[in-house]
Automatic annotation (TrEMBL):
Source organism per UniProt: Manihot esculenta
Highest classification ranks of the organism: Eukaryota, Viridiplantae, Streptophyta, Embryophyta, Tracheophyta
Transmembrane segments: 24-47
GO function terms (MF aspect): cellulase activity
Enzyme class: hydrolase
Gene3D superfamilies tied to this protein: 1.50.10.10
Keywords: Carbohydrate metabolism, Cellulose degradation, Glycosidase, Hydrolase, Membrane, Polysaccharide degradation, Transmembrane, Transmembrane helix
Annotated GO biological process: cellulose catabolic process
Pfam families: Glyco_hydro_9 (PF00759)
Family named by the database record: Belongs to the glycosyl hydrolase 9 (cellulase E) family.
Catalysed reactions, as listed in the record: Endohydrolysis of (1->4)-beta-D-glucosidic linkages in cellulose, lichenin and cereal beta-D-glucans
UniProt-listed InterPro entries: 6-hairpin_glycosidase_sf (IPR008928), 6hp_glycosidase-like_sf (IPR012341), Glyco_hydro_9 (IPR001701)
Name under which the protein is recorded: cellulase
Documented EC number(s): 3.2.1.4
Hydrolase in keyword set: yes
Length: 445
């Protein structure tokens, strides 16, 4: 909110982020967001329509080869992490693996992607990866196509969603983990030759997992938009799974890391309200069903949204992601919206704006969570994910401003422009690749 000190940006768990449960790193988030954000930093086009993400006239730019190369390398990392029977394999030292995953339950869970440096498939961060990859494709897919990377991005997305579909064999059952992390982490081996047991973990009506089910619903809903025009049958299948998973998540509320305590030391969830909002927001975009818009506003907005209290975006906390995604509705306008819905969407936007103000180094409410070279630095563990996620959201928000003809962002008495947000994003990229140079204003580029 206006005047909000960004030192107040906090974690969902109240700041208790040290310890083993946060030492697991969502590798997919880092890779995806770097890829998406470096592409955006090259001067890409925002997609304006609320329901179809059609192209607007914002930010047409020249694709810089070094950014195109970085995007290609980033997307190749998904190929490195693939499980299953490989198709069109671009990584010569990778081969087929985990072909029997899921067979003990009569399922084919051979696809999906391994986690950071191990052979476990963790569904919670993997689903978030799919959601973010979908968002990047929807917003910047035309320029991914220009540098011949769109097909690779879509194929990697489908590799994950194929797995997620098979992991959801019935409306109220979702398999969210393949493999035993304790055994796996004590044995370094190639996936092609692994011999360890591959147990499965699931959430269901008796052992609910609202957070992981809702995140998977968000992944399915956002991906359904990606494939809507290129594979309508697959898109419809994804949307069916998304709606079933959302109903399951909302009906049987409970955190998966409470139902299944052994997951707490790997990808512990500190709440599920943000995932419900995140999933409903994506389902609204995918279906245009007014029910999902009411869900995030008058029905659950006040309870789950944390309006006025910005938090850092991550695989565990989607609050600001939802705030930015719902801001686009408020910024572009929507006919027939009720006064209450519009006021609550404005609250989402104002909280997103407070987050943006915190990122800008010259803002009166600038966060102190940054290094002397201006890199966002929140935690020792997972350090770059917060910087990259913040930069990605800053690029999106700046493009939304341009597309909706909003020229300034007000931060406690000082005004900033979309270019200021993009300059912040570029500064983070420069830090990531070791270029600590002053950023030239985009006004002059």
């Amino acid at each position: 909110m206006e005047g909000k000190q960004v030192d107040d940006i906090k974690y969902k768990d109240g700041g208790q982020a040290e310890g083993a449960k946060f030492k697991r790193w969502g590798w997919c988030l880092l890779v995806l967001l770097i890829g998406a954000m470096v592409a955006a930093a090259a001067g890409l086009t925002v997609w304006k329509s609320l329901n179809h993400f059609k192209k607007s006239s914002a930010h047409h730019g020249i694709i810089t080869q070094k950014y195109a190369d970085a995007l290609e390398v980033a997307l190749q990392f998904f190929d490195v992490q693939k499980s299953g029977k490989l198709e069109n394999n671009r990584i010569p030292w990778r081969g087929n693996s985990a072909l029997q995953d899921g067979r003990q339950q009569g399922l084919d869970l051979s696809k999906g992607m391994y986690d950071a440096g191990d052979l476990i498939k963790f569904g919670f961060p993997m689903a978030f990866t799919a959601t973010m990859l979908s968002w990047a494709i929807l917003e910047y897919g035309d320029h991914m196509n220009t540098v011949k990377q769109l097909g690779h991005a879509q194929e990697s997305l489908k590799w994950i969603t194929d797995y997620l579909i098979n992991a959801h064999p019935s409306p109220d059952v979702l398999y969210f983990q393949v493999g035993d992390p304790d055994i796996d982490h004590n044995c370094w081996q190639r996936p092609e030759t692994m011999t360890e047991e591959r147990p499965l973990l699931q959430v269901n009506a008796s052992f609910p997992g609202t957070d992981v089910a809702a995140e998977t619903a968000a992944a399915m809903a956002s991906a359904s938009l990606v494939f809507k025009k290129i594979n309508s049958t697959y898109s419809n299948l994804l949307l069916t799974h998304a709606q079933q998973l959302f109903n399951f998540a909302d009906t049987y509320r409970g955190s998966y890391s409470v139902s299944i305590p052994q997951v707490q030391k790997f990808y512990n969830s500190t709440g599920y309200g943000d995932e419900l909002l995140w999933a409903a927001a994506w389902l609204y975009h995918a279906t245009r069903d007014e029910l999902y818009l009411r869900y995030v506003t008058e029905m659950n907005g006040e309870e789950f949204s944390d309006w006025g209290s910005p938090t850092w975006f991550s695989w565990d906390d989607k609050h600001v992601g939802s705030q930015v995604l719902l801001s686009r509705i408020n910024m572009f306008g929507l006919e027939g919206m009720s006064t209450e819905e519009n006021l609550e969407l404005q609250m989402y936007r104002e909280t997103a704006e407070a987050f943006m103000c915190g990122l800008l180094p010259d803002s009166p409410t600038a966060t102190s969570s940054r290094t002397k070279n201006a890199l966002i630095w929140v935690l020792r563990w997972n350090a770059l994910q917060y910087s990259v996620a913040s930069a990605f959201l800053a690029v999106l928000f700046s493009d939304y401003m341009v597309a909706s003809h909003i020229t300034t962002l007000y931060c406690s008495g000082k005004f900033f422009t979309p270019a200021d947000l993009r300059n912040f994003a570029i500064s983070q990229v420069c830090n990531h690749v070791g270029i600590n140079t002053e950023i030239t204003s985009l006004h002059n580029s």
